[in-house]
Request: fold
Amino acid sequence: MNFLPAPPNTGLRFRRIDLDGKPELEARAEFVTDTQRSTTLSKGPVKIHTVEHVLAAFAGAGVTNAIIEIDSNEPPIADGSSRDFAQLVREAGITVQTDPIEPYKITTPIELTIGETQLAIFPYNGFKITCTSSDKGGRFTQFYSTEVTPETWEKELSHARTFCFYEEIEFLIRNGLIKGGSLENAIVIREDAVLTNEPLRYPEEFVRHKMLDIVGDLSLVGRPIHGHVVAVKPSHHANTELAKAILAQMRRPLEQAQTFAPPPATTQQPEAPSSKSSKPAPKPVSTAAAEPAVKDGASLDINEVMKLLPHRPPFLMVDRVLKIEGNKITALKQVTIGEPYFAGHFPGHPIMPGVLQLEAIAQVAGILMMRQAENAGKLAYFMSAEDVKWRKPVTPGDTLIIEVELTKSRGKIGRAKGTCLVNDEVVSEAVVTCMFFER
Reply:
């Protein structure tokens, strides 16, 4: 097996150099096909067993792009842990690339119960695992909890070896699952005895190996995760199902945006030429062709704003763009008593809904992100909002100033921090993420 560097956005992927064409298999949850005693990935004729220990070595170290070359359908077992793999990664060194991958932050708890396994992940500013393991009879029950960082990963988890119970061995041999198994690469538990060729590496080596497996299996999400995993009797099946549930949560904002997005704009279709006319039919004209330029020093009136945004009154929350300077934009929304939402929010005490201030930030951010040439003429879909705060009420007669700064842009996704002000006082703020699609 060889570990090779890879360019940004490659992800972790296996390359079977023993097969014609050296096919590659991405380490993603969608390719999981078997989880009996280990995690197996398959794609077409390419299959790789027991990927979790190698993937854990990369994920634990924070590596997101690498090629894993192997000349078999399974990586070397080594000593049944990730220790040797983690050491190889550390000795090779890690390069910070120009297009880093942001960790995905769990937004709402995800909980799974599969047989005796209970697995959950909660919002958390970092990556933490709290785990309890035991066999069906409750023997060798162990508990451990740790924050997973590159330092704690290698010191506290990577050395933990795989283990099995003596009564399982006959079944495993019969099913061809431990052909290379020995006390050199596994711990065997027989009744109350622990059979191993060296002393236990940790007092809680069994549960720590279960946590090692969780690190490897959750790397199939395809990006680092910020969340607190709480596991009771985890298994590869439950771990990979949790990875799929996290992916579903990641996709949900995009799916919602696509559901509620306006239909794509149409182009002008040429009229069928008359048989009496010799003039050629005009070519189709894209509606994006007349869009105003979003550039430094520009200011946009309401007509120019409507050429950039698909929104229309009463849902257009931008009356004018006052200025664009680098990665910053300032826009204006005049709040009048004629706004339709004041009829019900609230009678006798009109207040602009906070979510509409958030929408104003997202719309202005969408305009700013069109500075990039590749986004010109596209639709900005509002994907998510974080750190949202509403500080003061906005009432009829107020002039809402919306200030937005682009903090990150990668491909068709942009992230920006926005603030709404009235009389130079902050009334609301948020960090928003948008994605661009063709009209």
